[in-house]
Amino acid sequence: MGDRIRTVRLDRDLTQERLAELAGLDRQSVNRIEVGVASPRLDSLLRIADALDVSVAALVVDV
Predict the structure, then answer these.
(1) How far apart are CA 41 and CA 47, in angstroms?
(2) pLDDT in tens, 12-47
(3) What's the CA gap between 57 and 37, in Å, rounded?
(4) DSSP 8-state secondary structure symbol assigned to residue 1
(5) What is d(CA 17, CA 12) in angstroms, rounded to the nearest whole number?
(6) Of 57, 36, 35, 31, which Cα lies nearest the Cα of 46?
(7) What letter would DSSP give residue 38?
(8) 3-state helix, strand, coil in the chain (%, to 5)
(9) Is 37 helix (H, G, I), strand (E, B) or coil?
(10) Which contacts qualify for 41-50: CB closer than 8 Å, 24 or more apart?
(11) Which 8-state DSSP code applies to residue 36?
(12) Cβ(53)–Cβ(13) under 8 Å?
């Protein structure tokens, strides 16, 4: 999931810091999620998806 979040973030030309701002998280949390050290809580995942303008399914389901 972290790889998908990173890919979408980069496709939207966002830094980790900007994604964190848009999602109401700190940059360290976004980094830990992207590298797979931490899994986001459901509310954080919803906010990340919203900030990236994608569905949660687009971030968690293999296509």
Answers:
(1) 10
(2) 999 999 999 999 999 999 999 999 999 999 999 999
(3) 21
(4) -
(5) 13
(6) 57
(7) S
(8) 65, 0, 35
(9) coil
(10) 47/23, 48/5, 48/19, 48/23, 50/23
(11) T
(12) no
In the block, which residue shows the tokens 């050290």? 37
| Res 63: pLDDT | 61
Per-residue pLDDT at 62: 74
What number of other Cβ atoms are within 10 A of residue 56's Cβ? 14
Contacts (Cβ under 8 Å, ≥6 apart) of 44: 23, 25, 29, 33
Place of tokens 């973030």: 9
Residue 6: partners with Cβ closer than 8 Å, 6 or more residues away? 34
Residue 61, pLDDT > 90, answer no
pTM metric for this prediction = 0.93
